[in-house]
């Protein structure tokens, strides 16, 4: 290897390192135009039953208590703001949490489905993260799959009488991880590799996103736990009002 | 741009995006990318620098996603060029480079078409448009409220963050986590309080389960409709030729 080759190698390594760390959690929103039309429609169709269920559950809540509309809207805005905040991170890159894990624990997965779609539309329209054609795929990974897993783990931990903070941590971190796995799977389905097909492609996409997503899942877990801890200390009446502590006790 | 009927803008943007990803034609993607950029900058009056900054946002995803398509892994040597690693081989996939070049073009063209719509249309008009497409009233109402509340909460959050920063709340990683969590929780408490106040304010203004917003009437002008139809026709022509 001569001197010139060495310097090129160094440059390439520096390039790889820089870009390896820059991408943020937003990277898990599949961008506008990245999926073929068939997949856009198919993922959208998969979401429909969940969204209808969410819509019915919200409508029922509102019929019983009209006042819940502003609470719901505030919760949606809360998830949006939370997901748009830069969070502390070890690599010095700019990362964000999904916030849907917390939402699922506080409000239940079906309501988060509807709020999640609205938040995703605003993220696409206001922040250019995600897109309108990939809304279906993003909705499935972020607003349906992730929250359902979070909620399931949270309930399971409660049944097994795991420490509450540990269960909140597990629910948020694993929900985040699951979102990342589903997104990788969606990308792999659309772009299978020529040797090994979808399976090999899933491994590729998982591998590419892993360096940013694994630490992020842990951080999301820690932050969600801190938020729930603070809420329990200072906001018991509010938590009771949305039915959080009641169901825990 | 602001005076143009939002429905027309949305129709053109969506048609352009669908043509881009539906046909996968390179020429269409390039045309859409350049023309939508030109419309946003020249007609919309956005500075080129700001527009380029906006285009940079999705680049992170593009780099990672494309890398995964160009490079393949396999347990046996494959492709023209491969690097052996313990347990498997990393290879450049056949046609992967061409596929990802197409994909990058398609994606950037779609993004520029979406920007043409969202950079020239207020959110309330987009929500109204969805309402006209028979989105349930409940959802469009929620969207309108959420949109308003986002700014209220951003405001609260930025003052909380300033307060925390001025007290060294972000000087190392652990403190940052604590401050972030505290701000998140406080934000939630404040938002619930505000939700109550907002509801009272709405009731005081005769809210009976329906929010009505003032809507500006922007009829479609014949000239604009012709230009829009012509644009889509040109794209279609490019595809057929």
Describe this structure in words.
The complex is a heterodimer of chains A (249) and B (241). Chain A has 249 residues and is an all-alpha fold. Chain A has 10 helices and no strands. The longest helix of chain A has 38 residues. By secondary structure, chain B is mainly alpha-helical. Helices cover 71% and strands 5% of the residues of chain B. Chain B contains 9 helices and 3 strands, in the order H-H-H-H-E-E-E-H-H-H-H-H. Chain B has a 3-stranded antiparallel beta sheet with strand order 1-3-2. In chain B, a hairpin with a 2-residue loop joins strand 2 and strand 3.
**How much helix, percentage-wise, in residues of chain B?**
over 70%
List SSEs of chain B in N-to-C order: HHHHEEEHHHHH
Report the oligomer.
heterodimer
Give the chain pair forming the largest contact, with residue counts: A-B, 85 and 80 residues
Strand content range of chain A: under 5%
Question: What is Rg of chain B?
Answer: 24 Å
Number of strands of chain B: 3
Using only C-alpha atoms, the radius of gyration of chain A works out to 20 Å
The overall pLDDT of chain B, averaged over residues, is 84
The largest pleated sheet of chain B is described as:
3 strands, antiparallel
Order of helices and strands of chain A: HHHHHHHHHH
């Amino acid at each position: 290897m001569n001197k010139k080759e060495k310097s090129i190698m160094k440059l390439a390594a520096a390039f790889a390192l820089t870009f390896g760390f820059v991408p943020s959690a937003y990277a898990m929103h599949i961008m506008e135009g990245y999926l073929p039309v068939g997949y856009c429609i198919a993922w959208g169709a998969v979401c429909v039953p969940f969204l209808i269920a969410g819509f019915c559950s919200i409508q029922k809540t509102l019929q019983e208590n009209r006042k819940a509309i502003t609470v719901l809207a505030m919760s949606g805005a809360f998830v949006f703001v939370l997901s748009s905040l830069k969070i502390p991170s070890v690599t010095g890159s700019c990362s964000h949490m999904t916030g849907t894990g917390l939402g699922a624990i506080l409000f239940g997965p079906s309501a988060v489905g509807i709020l999640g779609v609205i938040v995703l539309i605003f993220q696409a329209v206001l922040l250019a993260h995600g897109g309108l054609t990939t809304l279906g795929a993003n909705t499935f990974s972020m607003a349906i799959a992730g929250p359902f897993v979070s909620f399931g783990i949270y309930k399971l931990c409660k049944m097994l009488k795991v420490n509450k903070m540990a269960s909140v941590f597990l629910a948020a971190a694993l929900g985040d991880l699951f979102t990342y796995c589903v997104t990788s799977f969606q990308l792999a389905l659309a772009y299978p590799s020529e040797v090994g097909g979808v399976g090999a492609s899933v491994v590729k996409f998982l591998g590419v996103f892993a360096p940013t997503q694994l630490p992020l899942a842990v951080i999301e877990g820690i932050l969600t736990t801190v938020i729930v801890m603070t809420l329990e200390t200072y906001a018991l009446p509010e938590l009771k009002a949305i039915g959080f502590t009641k169901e825990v006790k | 741009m602001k005076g143009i009927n939002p429905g027309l803008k949305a129709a053109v943007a969506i048609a352009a995006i669908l043509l881009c990803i539906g046909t996968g034609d390179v020429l269409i993607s390039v045309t859409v990318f350049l023309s939508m950029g030109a419309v946003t900058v020249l007609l919309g009056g956005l500075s080129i620098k700001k527009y380029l900054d906006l285009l940079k946002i999705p680049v992170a995803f593009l780099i990672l996603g494309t890398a995964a398509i160009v490079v393949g892994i396999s347990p046996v040597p494959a492709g023209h060029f491969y690097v052996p690693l313990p347990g498997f081989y990393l290879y450049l996939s056949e046609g992967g480079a061409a596929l990802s070049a197409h994909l990058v073009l398609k994606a950037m063209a779609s993004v520029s078409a979406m920007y043409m719509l969202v950079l020239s249309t207020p959110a309330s008009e987009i929500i109204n448009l969805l309402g006209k497409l028979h989105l349930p009233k409940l959802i469009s109402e929620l969207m309108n409220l959420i949109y308003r509340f986002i700014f209220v909460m951003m405001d609260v959050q930025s003052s909380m963050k300033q307060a925390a920063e001025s007290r060294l709340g972000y000087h190392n990683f652990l403190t940052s986590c604590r401050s972030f969590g505290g701000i998140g929780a406080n934000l939630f408490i404040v938002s619930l309080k505000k939700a109550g106040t907002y509801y009272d304010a709405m009731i005081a203004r005769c809210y009976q389960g329906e929010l009505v917003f003032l809507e500006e009437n922007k009829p479609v002008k014949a000239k604009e409709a012709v230009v829009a139809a012509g644009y889509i026709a040109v794209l279609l022509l490019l595809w057929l030729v």
